[in-house]
Amino acid sequence: MIRRRAALLATLCLFLPVAASEAEREQPIDTYVLIEAALRDIGARATECSTDVKEAIRSREMGVLCARFDGDFEAFRSQWRRRLSRVEPKTGWSVNGATYDRIYAVGTQAVGIRFSMGEILVVFK
User: Fold this and answer.
1) What whole-number distance in Å separates Cα of residue 82 and Cα of residue 14?
2) 45 located within any domain
């Protein structure tokens, strides 16, 4: 489990932007607020992230949100897609057993989403 989380973080780091343009700096997107609202809109409940996730995120100076979704991946994917109008997918969904990962761009920020048996992990920089 820890290795899979580390792999998501490593993949996310590949997509982190180097610098924002002047126009992008003038209209920042609050990624935390956007993702938190999207999770709430699909009916996911915020949960406490595990200690190992918090430590991995803190060491990389990233943000993290954890949540629980009552439904399978297909239900999550269908609802998630409808909620993210300002988000651009950067990868397809990668599948490893019952774990699904995808990287998005939110403005100039990279956001990694992991869905695993109802548990959602969102990391962003």
Assistant:
1) 26
2) yes
One-letter identity of residue 111: V
**Which residue stretches of the chain are H helix?**
2-14, 22-26, 31-41, 51-59, 73-83
Contacts of residue 10, Cβ cutoff 8 Å, sequence gap at least 6:
none
Q: Which domain holds residue 105?
A: 2-13+28-124
Counted domains in the chain: 1
- 26: which 2 tokens? 């003038």
**Blockwise average pLDDT, block size 10, the chain, 125 residues:** 53 43 47 90 95 88 93 94 80 96 89 96 91
- d(Cα 38, Cα 28) in Å, to the nearest integer? 17
Tokens of 10: 């490593």
Cα dist from 125 to 16, 64, 69, 76, 78, whole Å: 7, 9, 23, 23, 25
